[in-house]
Amino acid sequence: MLAIVIPYYKLIFFEETLKSLSEQTNKRFRVFIGNDASPEDPSLLLEEYKDKIDFVYQIFEENLGGISLVKHWERCIALVEEEDWIMILGDDDILEKNVVSSWYEHYNVFHTKSNLVRFASKSLNMNLNGRISHSFTNPVWEKASDSYFRRFKGLTRSSLSEYAFSKTAFKKFGFFDFPLAWHSDDAAWLFFSDDKPIYSINESNLLIRYSSSSISGKQNNQKLKDLASENFYKQCIVEKMEFFSKPQQLDLILEYEISIKKNRKLRWAEWRYLLLFYLSAMQINAFMKCLRRCCLSFR
User: Fold this and answer.
1) pLDDT single digits (tens) 274-284
2) Using CA atoms, how far apart are residues 103 and 273, in angstroms rounded to an integer?
3) Are 204 and 96 in contact (CB under 8 A)?
4) Residue 214: what pLDDT?
5) pLDDT by residue (tens digit) across 167-199?
6) Could you say which of 71, 150, 171, 220 has the lowest number of CB atoms within 10 Å?
7) pLDDT greater than 70 at residue 149
8) What mean pLDDT is reported for the chain?
9) What is the pLDDT of residue 298?
């Protein structure tokens, strides 16, 4: 059975989320809602949906999301009971009516071959009067490294809500606790996949809301995003480098260097890693350019 976990905080679009769940053509799912000590009480709204959705509602006394979004996700996931697959849904995101039904229609295809299932998605941009984008679809089977690289190159979009993952993979790896949970989902998919491909369901969409108040849309948190990016490239991309093709590695290793420079100067150990990487890849021109940047940084 599928568990849909909602880390709740904002009421403004929550009814649209609940309505989309109540309209699912297949009801074989359970919803677990974790209230992050929100000042916006959803109790009256939940009362309206108690006979339409099978849900568990937990109010947490301590606000964790302001300190660590990942820790709040994890305590919400801890509410899940016997369900083996988990989707984390934003409290403002929307499922098309056939998301759960398509999940079960495809279940026998993926459940022994993949730890990650990805739905198609549309962007719901509140900065553009709620304009809905075209559907972003994906290869039916795809390596997690190739999936991330397509996003890195701006060829697709990706967000936490459009994925479902096995509880076993989550327990094995957990989430990386980066600032603002920026890149925490990217890191999760690289590790949760556990050498298995991602399976995509393209006939069903998640509508992912984007606004100036969302983490992605805010402009006053760039320093934290930059720090998270550095941690992500250091702890995840470098760790998983062998899963990327050589051309992909060259792009990613340069981005790793750039991500550090946005926050601070590179240390000698980091320059050494980069130089040895270019040498081992037989990229002499890139090695010489990197060596020059290294020398200039210590002047």
Assistant:
1) 999 999 999 99
2) 43
3) yes
4) 63
5) 999 999 999 999 999 999 999 999 999 999 999
6) 220
7) yes
8) 94
9) 86
* Residues present in the chain in total: 299
| Cα 61 versus chain centre, distance | 26
SS3 56: strand
Q: How far apart are CA 125 and CA 157, in angstroms?
A: 13
- H-run or E-run covering 204: strand 198-210
Handedness of CA 97, 101, 105, 107 (dihedral sign): positive
- Picking from 35, 38, 75, the residue whose alpha carbon sits closest to that of residue 58 is 35
Q: Helices (H), strands (E): how many in the chain? A: 11, 10
Non-local (6+) Cβ contacts of 101 within 8 A are: 24, 25, 26, 204
What is the reported pLDDT for 212? Answer: 64
Q: Is the dihedral of CA 11, 13, 18, 22 positive or negative?
A: positive
Domains of the chain by range and CATH?
Answer: 2-217 (3.90.550.10), 221-297 (no CATH)
Query: Could you give the CA distance from residue 53 to residue 248 in angstroms, rounded to a whole number?
Result: 44
**Euclidean distance between the first and final Cα of the chain, in Å?**
60
CB-based contact 287:279 (threshold 8 Å)? yes
Output the CA–CA distances (angstroms, integers) from residue 196 to 9, 138, 182, 213, in the order listed.
Answer: 34, 16, 24, 35
d(CA 265, CA 267): 6
Give the whole-angstrom CA distance, residue 20 versus residue 43: 18
For residue range 112-148, list pLDDT tens digits in order.
Answer: 999 999 999 999 887 666 788 899 999 999 999 999 9
Residues 6+ apart with CB under 8 A from 60: 34, 35, 36, 37, 72, 75
Tokens matching residue 272 = 């050494």
User: Which pLDDT value is given to residue 99?
Assistant: 98
Give the number of other CB atoms < 10 A from CB of residue 161.
Answer: 23
